[in-house]
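USER:
I wish I could look at a protein chain and see how it folds. I am handing you a single protein, as its sequence and its fold in token form. As I understand it, each token names a local backbone shape. I hope you can help me see how the letters and the tokens relate. The protein I mean follows directly.
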Amino acid sequence: MEKLSLTAKARTTLDEARMSSNGRSAHTVYGGHEQTLRQTIIALTAGEGLAEHDSPGEATLQVLQGRVRLVCGEDSWDGAPGALLVIPDARHSLEADEDSVVLLTVAKRS
């Protein structure tokens, strides 16, 4: 069994994003390329985001800190700490309204 503090990992990942020239940082905390389930902590500084990209499969975003917006075409969903956003099976982007950390959980397609 493994144990990880998401709070501590969120703090260090956000510190890395703040020091990064692109205002982003990410670390896989569970799973990987060879596994079906993968969880990644993503930190974005205010005003930064992830450009539009394809859906990775079944996926959710849990907001750990800050405020984000998930955008899919004309639709968007706001997330604050504690929110769980289901990522649509379509191209989408993510924007940080303030310094933010999310936990991305993906069940990859076979």
